[in-house]
Design brief:
- It contains eight helices and 14 strands.
- The chain is an alpha/beta fold.
- The chain has a single domain, classed as Metallo-beta-lactamase, Chain A (4-Layer Sandwich), CATH 3.60.15.10.
- The strands form two sheets. The chain has a seven-stranded mixed beta sheet with strand order 6-5-4-3-2-1-14. It has a seven-stranded mixed beta sheet with strand order 7-8-9-10-11-12-13.
- α7 links the parallel β11 and β12.
- α7 crosses α8.
- The termini are close together.
- The protein binds zinc ion (ZN) (2 copies).
- One zinc ion binds next to α2.
Length: 245
């Protein structure tokens, strides 16, 4: 089974002129999952796939830089030229589902809203998805996707006090947030050096740095991560690029 991840956006907290917020298109065995829907990712998604082919949406937490473009999909699936489309599943923590439904009462008409929590396993079209509670102020789930013998892991937003080993041990591709740089630290996000140390400790075969600080030099983040893990394969995630896992 093939597993791929296309980066729809890499900017943390808010979008820039060139970079959308957090979002990925994950594909296996013909199934297409939109993983996080930050500002700008709807346009990135549309440049890589037909939105009618989406099999589902998975949102890691309620913060706007991970969710707000789901309303673009809502309108397109409800009001688009193809008429009203059949609902597709939208998985997220209950807190996220409640927040989105509070913003637009049509959410449960366009999506099948399905609550997920940590310690849960979701069997989906031949892949197995598991979730880990991350260290971030709202309820936030990191996701591990196992498809055949391939493993992709995504940190969502998190500080260092999460169980990264459960999330990303031996992952072929580890997509990890790196919001902070130059030694800055906070309990709810990671800096480049922390990501490097985590990537080495979990044994990830390739790590992509994402949720990068907007309007800052990302080469600094990359250098910090690589300095902390000189033998690890670490790159900056590139918007629009498809990675075979
Ligand atoms: Zn974020
Ligand atoms: Zn967040």
């Amino acid at each position: 089974m093939t597993l791929s991840l296309t980066v729809l956006g890499t900017s943390g907290m808010f979008a820039t002129a060139a970079e959308a917020c957090s979002g990925y298109l994950v594909e296996w065995d013909g199934f297409k999952l939109w993983l996080d829907a930050g500002a700008g990712t709807w346009q990135s998604l549309r440049s890589t796939t037909d939105y009618r082919e989406l099999g589902g949406v998975l949102l890691t937490h309620r913060h706007p830089d991970h969710t707000t473009d789901v309303f673009q999909a809502l309108h397109a699936r409800y009001l688009g030229t193809h008429g009203k489309l059949s609902p597709i599943p939208l998985w997220a923590p209950q807190e996220t589902l409640d927040a989105l439904s509070g913003f637009d009462s049509d959410m449960d008409d366009v999506f099948e809203l399905r609550s997920v929590s940590g310690s849960e396993r979701l069997e989906l079209k031949g892949a197995s998805l598991s979730f880990v509670h991350m260290a971030h102020p709202p309820i936030t789930l990191g996701v591990r996707i196992e498809a055949g013998d391939r493993v992709a892991a995504y940190s969502a937003d998190s500080g260092p006090a999460a169980d990264f080993d459960a999330l990303a041990h031996d992952a072929d591709l580890f997509v990890c947030e790196a919001t902070l740089q130059a030694g800055a630290s906070w309990e709810g996000h990671l800096n480049g050096a922390q990501v490097g140390a985590i990537a080495a400790s979990v044994g990830a075969r390739k790590t992509l740095l994402t949720h990068l600080p907007p309007e800052k030099d990302h080469a600094v983040t990359l250098a910090e991560a690589r300095a902390a893990a000189p033998s690890s394969d670490i790159e900056l995630a590139e918007q629009g690029r498809r990675y075979e896992v």
